[in-house]
Amino acid sequence: MKVEKISELTTNRLSIYLRCLNELIAEGAKTISSEKLAKRFHLNSAQIRKDLAYFGEFGVRGVGYYVGELHNHLTKILGLEKEHCVAIIGAGRLGTALTDYYGFSQSNFTVAALFDNDEEKIGQKVGNVKIFDIKDFAKVAKRDKIDVAVIAVPAQFAQSVLEKITQAGIKAVMNFAPTPLRVECDVKLKTVDLTISLESLSYFLAHSNNANGKNLKPNSTERRNAL
Amino acid sequence: MKVEKISELTTNRLSIYLRCLNELIAEGAKTISSEKLAKRFHLNSAQIRKDLAYFGEFGVRGVGYYVGELHNHLTKILGLEKEHCVAIIGAGRLGTALTDYYGFSQSNFTVAALFDNDEEKIGQKVGNVKIFDIKDFAKVAKRDKIDVAVIAVPAQFAQSVLEKITQAGIKAVMNFAPTPLRVECDVKLKTVDLTISLESLSYFLAHSNNANGKNLKPNSTERRNAL
DNA sequence: AATTTATGTTTCAAGTGTGAAACAAAATGA
DNA sequence: TCATTTTGTTTCACACTTGAAACATAAATT
């Protein structure tokens, strides 16, 4: 385990770099310099080098980075060389939608199980994924080697679901319930709050008078989100 | 239009406060002090007062805030007193899932139209929402008074879709395509990148050795996302 | 009228992230 | 061998957010 603390913004950028490399590989590029990478994908070359330098010396001075090699390094750094098994808790609209969301299947994340407390739903299937009783979470999670959980239940149940799954040993959780959750520090929680995002758009619409001229500078918080 | 620049983190917190007030209203509370609000919902009382003070004097010294009144103020500030009409571009899995996602219908956001370029899909319906040809976006958006667009198309088409909808006058866009997009400054773009979030979880799993003791301090970036 | 409560407002220190600049080191090519 | 390219690394200034502290102000209560 690396002891230096690496900012999440840094690791988010690693994801971006990996995507860029995928494009370059598809084009057959062999090497790329930080400068060219930055130019092409609207990034910052100094930051690319700094981000990568946290994890080792992957480049060759005078040459740049070997595309395939760097891709492998980033894949390893991000832990994407192994398959991750995902459980989705909540077999409602959002949960079932996420179950066959191409974004999961495309990458190294496989949805292995759905959970709900509705007896009508338990035992049914969404695509190939079976719906289990949330009471059996610990057992099923262990059996199916679940290492990532997605919370897609109504806000009022989210905290208790979170506690249940962390007690079962899950260390990585993505939360779609529009409520802040509290977790112990050895558990990683990512909350995706669509309500806040929508209301943020609404705020913008309410406070922008569309009279001012356009300009192309992207706004800074969006830049942070995007990179 | 307020001229002071208000941080997006501030407006995100306004959304949180609004949720808290909804709970309090449901319980029949009439007034609440910033201190009690903070204690109960794990917020910071000084920050609550500061955030609210950007927009006016809503509290009563010696009393606190009148719950219903503050709720109304926040609703207005966030522009949630009017209905917003949402168009979703991309009638794939994610797009159709979002279409009947309760999170949209519950609030003041109504999905008014779906768009796609697949002739098989055009003309069909998802729930009550009709799927239109993306070529007709400008026309339909004007007719149905669309003011928010959601991009749910594959990454490689996202930028061109974005340009099409901004040319039609849309000023608020939520992007689910896993790619950074460039917009003009008078357009608000929120990118929700589930891939980055997942890979961030993967990174955490790859770099945490689960040997260290637990502690309850929430990690700072999650706190920022949640509040 | 005096006390209490709690907001509105300002100020400040601490932490974090960004991006520019400078430069040594290493590899390539002429 | 020498010049060029580009990384790896350090340093610095700038900006932003947070949260604490201090205090005046206003309302309510005794």
Strand content of chain A: 15-25%
Which blocks of ≥5 consecutive residues of chain A have pLDDT under 50? 211-221, 223-227
CATH topology of the largest domain in chain A: Rossmann fold
**At CATH's second level, what is the architecture of the largest domain in chain A?**
3-Layer(aba) Sandwich
In order across it, which strands form the biggest sheet of chain A? 6-7-5-4-8-9-10
In angstroms, what separates the terminal alpha carbons of chain A? 24 Å
Q: Would you list the SSEs of chain A in sequence order as H and E? A: HEHHEEHEHHEEEHEHEEHH
Number of helices of chain A: 10
Overall body shape of chain A: globular
Multimeric state: homodimer
CATH superfamily of the largest domain in chain A: NAD(P)-binding Rossmann-like Domain
Mean pLDDT of chain A: 87
Which CATH top level class of the largest domain in chain A fits? Alpha Beta
Instruction: State the share of residues found in helices of chain A, binned by percent.
Output: 40-55%
Biggest beta sheet attributes of chain A: 7 strands, mixed
**Largest Cβ-defined interface:** A-B, 84 and 85 residues
Number of strands of chain A: 10
Radius of gyration of chain A, whole Å = 21 Å
Q: Which structural category fits the helices and strands of chain A?
A: alpha/beta
Question: What's the number of structural domains of chain A?
Answer: 2
